[in-house]
Specification:
- By secondary structure, the chain is of the alpha/beta class.
- The chain is built from 14 helices and 18 strands.
- Strands 7-8-9-10-11-12-13-14 form an 8-stranded parallel β-sheet.
- The longest helix has 19 residues.
């Protein structure tokens, strides 16, 4: 990635705050002025283009807005990313405004992680993807200073990284649906997006082509507990191993009712955002899905995984549609978890990093310092 393409932080924030601007206008070239011995932040918007439309229970899209981030320190660069699917409530303007308000130049020691991330967290509430982008870049930078990947810094064994699922969603065009299914061939577990009117149809269609185990993400799409229980029994007979967020995240009592009766584990996704939510999930779910864009990054995601294990919860590691930057950052945690859904970089057509690979269906963490990515 060309450093000259990154916009000077204050300039971008001022532009966004004062006038409506197209994405192409934001891609103009500006050099960031780096101060030796200080953390220097720069960023630019980058729209992710999906290989196929994402047909979810409550939305449909063919792109995902994103922001690419750099933190420079004495000639080393850490890369980070914010990816903002609509339900997060963030967008390019909000992320850019948040990043514009940061003053990382006040920090001369990048190893003061708690102090730096506490400052970032208290600049403004929410803004989880924006905060994650800085957290990821900071971790990448620190790993490069230490010349070690983060799985080694955390003392994790990369051989314990699980297989990753690969995501498909329903398509009314039979040829397009068949194409989606053909693309799942290299994977050992398939994630099926549900919560629409075609839930059984997509599973039955998939089963005509493959007997690979599936997991299901209903995206809060099942509107009552009896329907959800019927679907769990039906799915259990068709090789499903767990169901993710079957009902509305606010329906905690109904989810607890379902968990007691379901033949399949029930996993929290939209219900779960940050560390305090892990304890709440223990009363209604069998496991949690940790995503960096929800947890504010790697630092808190690691704490969430440790706490979940202590509480007896299963742990799934997920992602949004992201470049290999954020997916590779998440992969550093993968030896800690029971299941992985790290296919976000495989679902886009314009990845700008080389990083984590899926080899024979398995998450393979790059043996490179930091989060393990190289700009293309």
């Amino acid at each position: 990635m060309n450093r000259r393409n990154f916009l000077k932080t204050g300039f971008l924030g001022a532009m966004i705050a004062t006038s409506p601007i197209s994405l192409s206008a934001l891609d103009s070239t500006t050099r960031t002025i780096n101060r030796p011995g200080r953390l220097n932040l720069s960023f630019r918007p980058y729209e992710l283009k999906l290989l196929h439309s994402f047909n979810l229970a409550r939305s449909q899209r063919t792109t995902t807005p994103g922001v690419q981030v750099e933190i420079e320190y004495d000639g080393l660069i850490g890369y980070g990313e914010a990816s903002m699917p609509p339900y997060l409530g963030e967008n390019i303007a909000s992320v850019s405004q948040f990043l514009s308000n940061l003053n990382l130049g006040q920090f001369s020691d990048p190893f003061r992680v708690e102090e730096i991330l506490d400052y970032i967290d208290n600049v403004a509430p929410n803004n989880r993807a924006a905060k994650a982008s800085v957290d990821i870049a900071l971790h990448d930078l620190l790993g490069k200073i230490m010349k070690q990947p983060w799985y080694k810094i955390w003392g994790l064994n990369p051989e314990l990284a699980p297989n990753t699922s690969y995501t498909i969603s329903y398509d009314a065009d039979p040829k397009e649906m068949e194409k989606k299914i053909e693309e799942t061939a290299p994977f050992k577990i398939i994630k099926v997006k549900m919560g629409l009117d075609h839930d059984k149809e997509i599973v039955e269609t998939f089963r005509k082509f493959s007997n690979v185990p599936i997991c299901v993400d209903a995206n809060q799409g099942w509107n009552n507990k009896e329907k959800a229980l019927d679907m769990c029994h039906w799915l259990a007979e068709r090789g499903c191993i767990f169901v993710e967020q079957p009902m509305d995240k606010m329906a905690i009592d109904d989810t607890a009712w379902l968990r007691e009766r379901s033949p399949l584990p029930i996993i929290a996704d939209e219900f779960l955002q940050r560390l305090p939510d892990v304890k709440r999930a223990a009363g209604a779910y069998d496991g949690i899905n940790i995503k960096l864009m929800k947890s504010t990054g790697m630092h808190e995601a690691y704490k969430m995984a440790v706490l979940a294990k202590a509480l007896g919860l299963k742990v799934m590691l997920g992602c949004m549609t992201e470049t290999s930057c954020a997916v590779s950052a998440a992969s550093q945690l993968s030896p800690m978890v029971d299941w992985a859904d790290l296919d976000g970089n495989l679902l886009i057509a314009n990845d700008i990093f080389d990083g984590m690979k899926v080899i024979d269906g398995k998450v393979t963490i790059p043996d490179r310092p930091g989060i393990g990515v190289i700009p293309r």
